[in-house]
């Protein structure tokens, strides 16, 4: 679902992955600051998994990723909840999508399927927005906390220590998947401006091929996972699980051996 957000037609992947599904809507808005970039998200539901899905798209290419790294290298100044502060660019991008229909579509699916789980995902910038979506749903009491599941890929740091601690206290099922030397999860750096990752991290110190091992770190900013490496590589941000993150342009047929 994270990869399908890059497609102009994510409904193809929803259909390919789930025998019983419903695609709600894809929403595209102009992103703040980067005038030529767009932010995208979609909502769907898997009846076979009894799950509502919200997926956020990341940056479309390496140039866009590097532009975002430059834009986000500022202190977290946007007020989130309580005293927590997050990066202004990420928060604005998320809010633009949330208020342009993603929130309404999510609530509509929730009302139609009151006993389902909520799955939220995204890669890169999409991972940042997915984290903010999970925290927003949790802090505004829109969904039971024990039914929110967040999985992101190549997610950057989003906010300060207070945000990380708030996120940890609310979302127990949260995993940030990181591929090898992916540079984006190391931005903005933890040693300036007070940014801090929320937990938990799952680090693949390899190519993420079938059967490759991983390390799970359940504390914030663990030195046992990707923070232990200094050789960062933007190209590792472009592929996860040994496939390009943009593989889903024509659907996801054949990519999910566990289709149900």
Automatic annotation (TrEMBL):
This is Fungal lipase-like domain-containing protein. Gene3D superfamilies: alpha/beta hydrolase. InterPro entries: AB_hydrolase_fold, Fungal_lipase-type. Residues 53-189 form the Fungal lipase-type domain. GO terms for biological process: lipid metabolic process. Pfam families: Lipase_3 (PF01764).
């Amino acid at each position: 679902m994270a990869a399908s957000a890059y497609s102009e037609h994510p409904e193809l992947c929803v259909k390919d992955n789930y025998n019983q599904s419903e695609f709600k809507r894809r929403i595209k808005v102009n992103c703040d600051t980067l005038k030529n970039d767009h932010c995208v998200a979609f909502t769907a539901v898997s009846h076979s998994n009894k799950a509502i899905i919200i997926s956020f798209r990341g940056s479309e290419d390496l140039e866009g990723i590097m532009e975002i790294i430059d834009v986000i290298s500022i202190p977290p100044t946007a007020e989130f909840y309580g005293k927590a502060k997050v990066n202004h660019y990420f928060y604005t991008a998320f809010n633009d999508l949330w208020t342009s229909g993603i929130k309404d579509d999510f609530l509509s699916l929730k009302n139609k399927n009151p006993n389902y789980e909520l799955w939220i995902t995204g890669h890169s910038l999409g991972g940042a927005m997915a984290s903010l979506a999970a925290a927003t749903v949790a802090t505004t009491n829109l969904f039971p906390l024990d039914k929110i599941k967040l999985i992101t890929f190549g997610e950057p740091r989003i906010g300060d220590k207070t945000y990380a601690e708030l996120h940890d206290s609310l979302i127990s099922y949260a995993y940030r998947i990181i591929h090898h030397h992916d540079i984006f999860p190391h931005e903005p750096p933890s040693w300036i401006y007070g940014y801090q990752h929320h937990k938990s991290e799952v680090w693949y110190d390899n190519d993420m091929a079938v059967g490759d091992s991983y390390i799970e770190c359940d504390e914030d900013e663990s030195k046992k996972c990707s923070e232990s490496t200094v050789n960062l590589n933007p190209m590792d941000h472009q592929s996860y699980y040994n496939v390009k993150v943009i593989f889903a342009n024509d659907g996801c047929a054949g990519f999910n051996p566990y289709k149900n």
